[in-house]
Design goal:
219 residues, alpha+beta, six-stranded antiparallel β-sheet, three-stranded antiparallel β-sheet, globular
Amino acid sequence: MVAYHPPAEYLCDYAAGTACEAVSVLIATHLALCPQCRRQVSALDHLGGVMLEDLPPASLSHHAPELPTFKEPADILPPQLTANWPVEPSIPEPLRSYLAMAAKPPVWRWRLPGLSEMAVAVMGENRRSMAHLMRIPAGRAMPRHKHFGHELTLVLSGGFSDETGHYERGDIGYADFNTDHRPIADRGAPCICFVVMDAPLKLTGPLGRMINWAFGTSR
């Protein structure tokens, strides 16, 4: 059972189709694992439809672009998929199919002690966010860090704990300017997460200050 959900404003943005693409992919994947949030998004869709019915009709300019709609998790994916690389079985849909559309097979890269990272190329992204997969070996801890912006972390397999709680598959961790934490992966299996953030993070503590250059946040 999913215990941690995205803040309400993220679900509202997703239902309205105003969330950036990286966040839309993350929320859609969470919805595939969380019946509670699926019901909330369905209710928001219904409410939006009722509000639109109360508005007077308006003519559209023939120059107006056709806008995409994001109502169901699968809707964020183009109809044609090109599976250019094998995606790990633990990664659920729709993120799994989204990753398969990458023009070049992404690879895991060592980032810091106890942390590997895979950059996710977000198609059509307007640079409002950064997305990547993160893998922490079983029982290992990430360096303590804080945030210059907002971060959503969706657990895909395994789990981790920090000062805010214990997160497992389907859970979403939320961090912002007030968060200073040290996630630790559960024992028994690596923790793999999908992370979307709108600003870099900064490592804290003695070790973090020495290797902040790795994140480009030495200030």
